Amino acid sequence: MASREDKIFGILGHMVMIALSVCALVPIILMLISSFTDNGALLRNGYSFFPEQWSLGAYEWVFQSNSGTVLRAYGVSFALTASGTAASLVITTLLAYGLAKKDLPFKGFITFFVFFTMLFNGGLVPSYINYTTVFHVKDTFFGLLVPGLLMSAFSALLMKSYFVTSVPGEILDAAFIDGAGEFTTMLRIAVPMAKPIIATIGMFTGIAYWNDWNNGFIYLVKRTDLYSIQNLLNRLMTNIQALVQNASNVANAAEGLAQIPTVTVRMAMATLGVLPIVLVYPFIQSNFVKGITLGGVKG
Fold it and tell me: What is this structure's pTM?
């Protein structure tokens, strides 16, 4: 039976988590409502949870002006997120499992080498030269996939720690005694037991790929058809800002600007960028608790 102190601590903990959840949800709700608000009403009254006038003008402008481009950008983002997350999990799992082995030759040196990359990197200019002249990823899909996000040293060390602490060595030894090889033991014993950490790292990697716009900004110069949704939204925002800055000097810019819901379209673009993650997250979250009780040392 829980003591009085435990009950008080539980109540306070729930109150803190509820407050943090509200702080995280309120901006998203306000962003969504603002995207459906009439641009003129938003300019007059500011942001509000109860807008004076509702409107689909922002979404109509985005899809009518860039319908094919938006759908193509979504396709690129989905393909990038799926392939990048899968490749990252394969590489990270293989490296982490190897580092978790006690008898790995030069284990200390390899672990230090992986950790060292968390502290220092080659810098933007050497990385750009390396990727464009050696790997030739400029203006290709690999320019979005490979640079900087394919594997995280932090994720590898995090998964390695999970293998060491949460995958009992006795089970792996039993698999070896039964005749299982290294890859069979990893795929059929270690990986299923490490499902929670794999799901967590997969979620973080997927979000990083989905939200990434820097690689497209740097490595896609001519192939704008390879823009992800984040790159496309960034370009649309840049175009709107250019119209705003030149509206007082160029008559055509002022005329074009008058047809654009400049404020609400920003909220619509942000909503389009974050909506898939919000929809997919509940399904990913269910995988966190699965696998926690899989396996275990019996006896």
Answer: 0.78
